[in-house]
Automatic annotation (TrEMBL):
Coiled coil region boundaries: none
Radical SAM core domain residues: 262-500
The name this protein goes by in its record: TIGR03960 family B12-binding radical SAM protein
InterPro entries: CHP03960_rSAM, Elp3/MiaA/NifB-like_rSAM, Radical_SAM_N2, rSAM, rSAM_horseshoe, rSAM_sf
Organism: Anaerobaca lacustris
One function term, GO molecular function aspect: iron-sulfur cluster binding
Pfam families from the UniProt entry: Radical_SAM, Radical_SAM_N2
PROSITE patterns (alphabetical): RADICAL_SAM (PS51918)
CDD domains in the cross-refs: Radical_SAM
Amino acid sequence: MTDRKIEILTDRVEREFLPFVRRPARYIGGEVNQIRKDLDRCELTVALCFPDVYEVAMSNTGLALMVHVLNSLDGVAAERVFAPWVDAEAILREKGLPLFSLESKASLAGFDVIGFGLTNELCYTNVLNMLDLAGLPVRSEQRTQDDPLIIAGGGMANCGEPVAEFIDLFVLGEGEEAIVELVNLLIAAKKDGRGKDEVLLEAARRFEWAYVPRFYEFAYDDTHIAAFETRREGLPTRFHNAVVNDFENAPVSTRPIVPFAEAVHERVSVEIMRGCPGRCRFCQASFCRRPIRSRSAEKVFELARASQETTGFDTVSLLSLSSADYPYLEELVARLKGYFEDKRVGLSVPSLRVDQQLHMLPKYFTSVRKSGLTIAVEAAGENLRRIVNKPLKDDDLFAAVEAAYRSGWQKLKLYFMVGLPGETLDDVKAIVDLSDRLARLRKGVDNRIAHLNITVSWFVPKPHTPLGWFAQRPRDYFEQARSLILDEKQRRRANYLRFKFHDIRRSLLESTIGRGDRRCGRVVEAAWRDGARFDLWDECFEYERWQTAFAAAGMDLEAAAQKVFEPDRILPWEHLGGPDKEYLLTHYRETLDLL
């Protein structure tokens, strides 16, 4: 790695770019609590890229954490780069202006390291687009030793083979400590003048969480993986997620950046616990993010208090995969209520699990401004919940909701998933019945029927889960289920039930890419070159473009989504962290026994 000269583009950005974009606040930087260092005086420069627009990126806690961790290191500068919306991309290309960072308006290609956070399979085309807008080849094999090191982390790194040919190094698992170890290696290598390949080889040998795709290859037997092997002697073929063991004292920024443009979530977010004691068989996070660790109530309170004072946000959100399992929840909420009550600062506790504990929780929030209560029911029947290992009983669900109504909650949001193994159309129809009963339950409290918002998603089999071997339901099943739900709502004249459905086509694509192997990379690249951008946005998503890209590669998109993976075959993701395969197969076999 060699010293790099970063081009600062401030003048060009102000003259040629900002006056012509529809939302310049997305690109100007300079927000409250922003950290900006002198890039020329730093030993290592890192561009932290989020492959979505500013409003989404600024709500991502992982990105905020990496910005804080890296800028806390002497001699290291980290700056943010977000995907430019379509109008901004057009201007960049028209003016020949490279993609730049928010803080210094520095050309992306001038940074030592470009890091991407991968949060969803449908962001991959934006990753390629950002590399291209930086003036860099999208494929790692085409980049030179003098080009920046391209790394990727986040949840999708654990199933990242579809983008393996574009990424130099994946950081698997939790990044706070791993990124510091990697940065120290890179700084030393830069001082010694070592080349990129030499540095990547050392990282691959030293860190069990570092996956360098160029050093590995697959052999294929028709549609199956026949072998996964290393190209270099002495390298491992099984990787493990990085884990922050001392979660109590793990780094947290108490001066988060306050966005200029309104973000999706504008609130103080404090992570109270990592890991989940539940093992819902469809949930990738609960199987990949282990072990369970929690912060003390005192620590969380101090973090929330300090962060609210430096931002002025009017909501504090307590984050975890299952907040109801946080061991100090009652103590923590009482402390936060006592401090924030007269300051008119609300408290949000998402990811509450409904059981005997939850029906007691609403009373803890009676004096704090309430937002809606969200409950992930997943399936309308207890038997189907047993199949997916979500031990939720109807009695507990009704007790929790009634307690919420009596404590003043007026909004209730439910999440259901359609297409689970063992499901019938009667189970689908039961979603409307259960929702109706929960809405009418409020009549016993204040003689009103509650208005419920109900989100229905389509089951996507995920890597590193027991249900990852199962097929996804075909497209016409989901379409039939959606019609059945809406017809049943109409029959009941239940206008107080507002159903929102995920895009079926996106769910099919998510299943296909998410469980894809390295050969899927050529499909992602073909779709991007054909214009695929912002596939999570209705304005930009074109399903037919993806069907064409799959067909050109000799693949059928929907057939791949419905693929059943055989337990004795090599999975495209089994080497990339996550739990032991035999452990997952135990859950898989238990699922089969319940069907």
